[in-house]
């Protein structure tokens, strides 16, 4: 029986008593824009309809009562007096609801997707001149704006160290949009509309004045743009700056939610910590300023459409859950393959490696979604409670187990997509004798009733033959082979969930080959998002930014989850530091990783699925 992990100093679970929700804010009185403030923008009549928004549905035809037949009049239902406290509460609530005035319909919003438009808000982007902001965050905001999913009263405050005028910053962002927006070409009118809402705020994170001036500027923007005191702080900066920025915000009170409305949230990029100790310290520093419910730790994998669909697949259908356990599943494989190398981020990768960059977050997050118990509700904490239970049930590895069950690799020179590529050690800013792993594969188990004895094989690698992320559920063989005379040996059922590319789900099963005799072959049933729905899936950043603006933290990682995940990865990294490093490089770029990773499965009579 594996030892239970003890985590001294780890944060308590992030559950908090629900706080009084901020009081609803009255619509801002019409104000004249202050000089230099972003120009007021006309009603968004010209924007394109929300992509993927359901087509307006015709009202159901009214059933006509049979002619002349007097409509039966139901006797008024006799109201039972409330018998329990719950009945009493429900009765009071329904009376209160009935008495409340109905909100006025806005005719300009008719036909638009209304249910997911967030409150007016200021989006404060720290690290706005950086790579992530340009490639992902601002293109995601543009896409949300283009598809009417952002409120009209919205402003982006870009915080950066270099001097820019608002105009100069906007034109630089436009260039990035032209390169990275997922819908091309970028519509000029829509861009002008959003650009008028972007302001640049120069300041160094280490300077107190940055936050003081930011606070004053946000107050002004509340006045001129109607952002109503709602602010989201997005930290797209190097991780070493997270605690400093959070403390700076706290010093000037930018974390305080106001009684008369005005929420404050902080989105923190990954990696969250470098190991368990640093994650605990960072959680503590963030917790000194923000409450857990204000903190959104991002792992962009969770925003991917197929990952979200995994929950619908498991819990929105009746037929899979009964077989989702050790009785029917032989093992699970989770693969994140990248064909790219480290893309000029040598200094970052040297400090991180595949286990910190992928195993601690993306791979363990995918595993927890596959293995979790059904939550009682779809609320953020219910979901995260179940995910964290899974990670807690993974036994901590001993040094011997690490040597036996975890494989690390580093790519050497090779060929990817018919082009020669350098080895990791020849990449810029990489130590020519580097011992950093660019590949990791691990065999983990989950010690609970559902999964006991079912291995979960996880692997991640850079410079593999192709880019693909997949979860494969391998079912057990049938208990008795009936079709022994079949020419081919049918393989057991397999369910493959493709996270990227070609998002979809494939089920493999045996079918009879047409003709005389009984020959059984593998066939597949395939569902692909692209062909089933004929819409592009949103980028993960679009989903997650929108969720954070809506206050939905389900797809963000909670403090205790991050720490539990580190407590799986820390012993692996510690064990490696004491073991002899494999003979790096131990796999050629463009191959599926080191041989030892194949042996990890082969010794149990299994093999990695060919993707
Ligand atoms: N890039 C990606 O593909 C990617 C993917 C997933 C997660 N992430 C995470 O996202 C975060 C940002 O990554 P990145 O690649 O965008 O980093 P980056 O390109 O180095 O950007 C860092 C940003 O922070 C600013 N900055 C640094 N120190 C500052 C200071 N003292 N005062 C004011 N501004 C300062 C930089 O401003 P200057 O321009 O003035 O230096 C720059 O805008 C990291 O946590 C990373 O792990 C990145």
Mind explaining what this structure looks like?
The protein has 15 helices and 18 strands. Strands 8-12-13-7-14-15-16-17 form an 8-stranded mixed sheet, sandwiched between helices. Helix 9 packs across helix 14. The longest helix has 26 residues, at 346-371. It has 611 residues and is of the alpha/beta class. Mean pLDDT is 85; it is low at 6-10, 12-77 and 96-103. It has 2 domains: 121-269, 3-Layer(aba) Sandwich (Rossmann fold), CATH 3.40.50; 302-602, Dihydrodipicolinate Reductase, domain 2, CATH 3.30.360.10. Bound molecules: NADP nicotinamide-adenine-dinucleotide phosphate. NADP nicotinamide-adenine-dinucleotide phosphate (NAP) is lined by residues 127-132, 160-162, 204-206, 236-239, 241, 269-271. NADP nicotinamide-adenine-dinucleotide phosphate binds at residues 127-132, 160-162, 204-206, 236-239, 241, 269-271.
Task: Output mean pLDDT.
Answer: 85
CATH topology of the largest domain: Dihydrodipicolinate Reductase, domain 2
Cα(first) to Cα(last) distance is 34 Å
List the total number of helices.
Answer: 15
Write down how many β-strands occur, each being a DSSP E stretch of 2 or more residues. 18
The fraction of residues assigned to DSSP E strands is 15-25%
Ligands present: NADP nicotinamide-adenine-dinucleotide phosphate
The structure class reads: alpha/beta
CATH architecture of the largest domain: 2-Layer Sandwich
User: What's the overall geometry?
Assistant: globular
- Percent of residues in helices comes to 25-40%
Structurally, how many domains make up the residues?
A: 2
Low-confidence stretches: 6-10, 12-77, 96-103
Q: What is the rounded Rg?
A: 27 Å
Largest sheet: 8 strands, mixed
Q: What would CATH call the homologous superfamily of the largest domain?
A: Dihydrodipicolinate Reductase, domain 2
CATH class of the largest domain: Alpha Beta
């Amino acid at each position: 029986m594996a030892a239970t992990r003890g985590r001294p100093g780890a944060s308590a679970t992030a559950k908090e008593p629900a706080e009084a929700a901020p009081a609803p804010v009255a619509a801002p009185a019409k104000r004249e824009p202050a000089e230099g403030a972003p120009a007021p923008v006309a009603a968004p009549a010209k924007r394109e309809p929300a992509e993927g928004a359901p087509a307006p549905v015709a009202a159901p035809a009214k059933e006509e009562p049979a002619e002349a037949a007097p409509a039966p009049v139901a006797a008024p239902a006799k109201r039972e007096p409330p018998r329990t406290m719950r009945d009493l509460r429900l009765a009071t609530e329904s009376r209160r609801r009935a008495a409340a005035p109905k909100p006025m319909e806005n005719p300009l919003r008719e036909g638009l997707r209304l249910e997911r438009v967030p409150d007016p808000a200021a989006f404060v982007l720290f690290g706005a001149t950086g790579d992530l902001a340009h490639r992902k965050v601002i293109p995601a905001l543009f896409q949300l704006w283009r598809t009417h999913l952002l409120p009209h009263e919205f402003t982006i405050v870009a915080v950066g160290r270099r001097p820019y005028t608002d105009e100069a910053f906007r034109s630089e962002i436009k260039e990035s949009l032209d390169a990275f927006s997922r819908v091309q070409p970028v519509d000029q009118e829509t861009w002008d509309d959003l650009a008028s809402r972007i302001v640049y705020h120069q300041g160094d994170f280490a300077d107190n004045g940055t936050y003081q001036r930011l606070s004053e500027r946000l107050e002004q923007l509340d006045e001129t743009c109607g952002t109503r005191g709602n602010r989201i702080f997005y930290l797209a900066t190097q991780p070493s700056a997270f605690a400093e920025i959070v403390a700076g915000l706290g010093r000037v009170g930018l974390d305080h939610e106001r009684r008369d409305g005005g929420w404050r949230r902080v989105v923190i990029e990954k990696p969250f910590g470098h190991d368990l100790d640093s994650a605990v310290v960072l959680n503590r520093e963030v917790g000194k300023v923000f409450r857990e419910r204000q903190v959104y730790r991002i792992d962009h994998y969770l925003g991917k459409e197929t990952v979200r669909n995994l929950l619908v697949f498991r819990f929105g259908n009746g037929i899979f859950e009964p077989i989702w356990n050790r009785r029917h599943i032989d093992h699970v494989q989770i693969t994140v393959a990248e064909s790219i190398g480290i893309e000029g981020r040598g200094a970052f990768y040297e400090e991180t490696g595949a286990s910190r960059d992928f195993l601690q977050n993306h791979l363990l997050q995918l595993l927890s979604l596959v293995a979790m118990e059904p939550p009682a509700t779809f609320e953020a904490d219910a979901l995260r409670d179940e995910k964290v239970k899974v990670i807690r049930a993974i036994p901590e590895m001993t040094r011997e187990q690490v040597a036996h069950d975890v494989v690390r690799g580093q790519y050497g020179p090779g060929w990817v997509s018919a082009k020669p590529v350098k080895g990791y050690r020849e990449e810029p800013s990489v130590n020519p004798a580097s011992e950093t792993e660019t590949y990791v594969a691990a065999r983990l188990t989950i010690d609970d009733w559902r999964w006991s004895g079912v291995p979960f094989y996880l692997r991640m690698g850079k410079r593999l033959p192709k880019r693909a992320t997949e979860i494969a559920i391998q079912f057990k063989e049938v208990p008795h082979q009936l079709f022994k005379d079949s020419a081919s040996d049918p393989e057991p059922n397999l369910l493959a969930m493709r996270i990227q590319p070609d998002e979809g789900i494939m089920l493999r099963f045996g079918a009879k080959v047409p003709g005389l005799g009984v020959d059984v072959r593998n066939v597949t049933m395939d569902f692909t998002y692209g062909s089933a729905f004929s819409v592009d899936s949103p980028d993960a950043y679009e989903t997650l930014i929108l969720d954070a603006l809506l206050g939905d933290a389900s797809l963000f990682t909670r403090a205790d989850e991050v720490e539990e995940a580190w407590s799986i990865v820390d012993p692996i990294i510690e064990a490696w530091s004491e073991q002899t490093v494999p003979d790096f490089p131990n796999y050629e770029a463009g191959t599926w990783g080191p041989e030892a990773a194949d042996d990890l499965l082969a010794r149990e009579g299994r093999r990695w699925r060919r993707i």
